[in-house]
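Re: the multi-chain job from yesterday

Posting the exact lines I submitted so nobody has to dig through the queue logs.
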Amino acid sequence: MRAALFVTCMVDLFAPEVGDATVAVLRAGGCDVTVPRGQVCCGQPAWNSGFADDAAAVARTSLAALSADDAEVIVVPAGSCATMIRVFWPELFEVVGDHEAAAQARALAGRTRELTELLATLPMPPLAATEAMSVAYHHSCHMLRELRVEQQPEQLLDAVGGIERVDWSAGQRCCGFGGLFSCKLPETSVAMADDKLGTLAEEAPGAILVGADTSCLMQMRTRAEHEGNPIVTRHIAEVLAAALP
Amino acid sequence: MSTTTPPPAHHLLEGTTLRERTRDATTDLRLRASIGKAVVRFSNGRVEALSHLEDPTALRAAARRVRHDVLARLPAVLDRFADNVIANGGHVHWARDGDDANAYIAAVAARIGARSVVKGKSMASEETALNEALQAAGTSVVETDLGEWIIQLAGQTPSHIIAPAVHLDRFQVRDILQPEATDGRVLGTEPEELAAFAREQLRARFLAADLGVTGCNLGIAETGSILLVENEGNGRLSTTVPRVHVAIMGMERLVDTWEQADLLVNLLARSGTGQHLSTYTNIITGPRRAGEADGPDELHVVILDNGRSDVLGSDLHESLACIRCGACLNVCPVYRQVGGHAYGWVYSGPIGAVLTPLLAGQHDEAAELGNASTLCGACMDACPVMIPLQDLLLSLRRRKAADAGVAERAAWRAWSATWGRPRTYRASLKAATTGRSLTGVLGGFPGAARWTEGRTTPVPATRTFTERWNHAER
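And the result, structure tokens for all chains:
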């Protein structure tokens, strides 16, 4: 299967190692990976701030780049950006009155997959962690409640030898990132991160915090760092790639 | 009429920003502890109570259809309701806004020479600031829902749609109730003792009251009935002991048939408190008839518009489907940290963030409430009538963006001009990786510098993924 990667601005800029890991696990699952040229951001910051025209200007460029690639699937290593493409692009283009782009976005939505959603359908080789570890999974909101991708990431982690996944009561609670929410109401955003980090420390001390969105992980990691909390965060692609044979 | 009404005391919004209010709330650890405990109890209760239903999702979908059906033909259903209230011997007043509703109720109180009013819990009367209006007219008003009584004594507003004093712990409640013990008793802090004390105090107020004012969970058009759910019996006493009962009903709180009411009642308490049914479900059809032992001599229904007509048919009309169960507050991670007062008006949580800009009048302070959310969607999943709250919050943000100032507009225009073209997008990322700084990337977003308040600064990688990939491909 050929998979075209939508890198996302967060991974491109802050976490290229997540991009590398994504490519590695996709190849291990039998995918031929391409990275369509000309892609930019998905436009979500502007869309969530109410500036639909500016969101559309950016999204239109990525839509053209991805639509030009005839790969069977577009794969996105971020639940939030995958949701933007699949759920909100068609709506966004309708809101700004660009019906042609909306139709193109709907066609693209049908072959767009969040990374773990796709991996769960691939014939993956047996995975084993190099050393035993305990992990706690953070469900990112858009992935959980818009894409309804809930079990796949947990099942992928559970299939890795040497990994013990710990259930925790705040696993499905928002981390407080929310895009520019984090800067508009910083005190509340940080309080939400503390709620998650505090629950994690209580219920799964020592566990590595694993998620499928670089943005959520950045929110929790930078808050933890600021507070001298030694919690380790990892993107699920990194955890899986490190366990490849 | 409206000139004699005092300015509503409930407009906490004015003069404060959402950030100021939420910041203050997050520093109040006692508040966060009280709220945190309550919302976990309520939301776990909701999940448990819904699990007893055969197919809760199908029921929620049916409830959504009922609300949409009623809203789609609201004028006709309202007329049917009003006609039947009158046929039952009741009176109907159509109130254009809060002042209009308050003036009508004050006039009823004056006509019957009411000296004291007892009130059951009513968010609509909070919306109109009825207590202040009646007190200004010289009538004493006592809230009889325990939580409402506590916040009335404390001079506060509700911090939750169904649990108005949820932000207070039992020690704070004891301190608020203590001055009411005029016989020198020292109150303890056990909830049972405090509730017994409140019961004893309020019982005397019921017996002395001339007028009872309540809200209305649902009007049922086919029989002109008012459905009122509660847990303390205060609603039943408020509607039966005083000579006159006035119910104040939001214009949209209506169903056509008993069958529809049955479906919504089935979901209301389950979604709100996790009860299968509230302790009391009062159904009031007209005043006391000849030969009947209970009920008031007069029954008035005040149907409150207060901006709702303008919402009908708008991009935010689904907010009118709300049945005020409070489930969205209980699951909201923002509400969980800041409580209800930070929203600045009478309604809080995700539904409050949508309703306040629509019903509290045109305030800049209200318009920014769309930002009181991470758009996590937990509210949508909890709502018994499936209101897509995060979509409504996004609509509010678009409305606000349409009124944005020049600087904010220019910042977004500059961002989209740069990030909308591959060449300039790549140059922007290149600059960030070279300088290992975000200034050129996110510096243009208003307020982006606030990231570092409480967090370390994220540092860009030395080389983007795309650069690495292109290099490897060559």
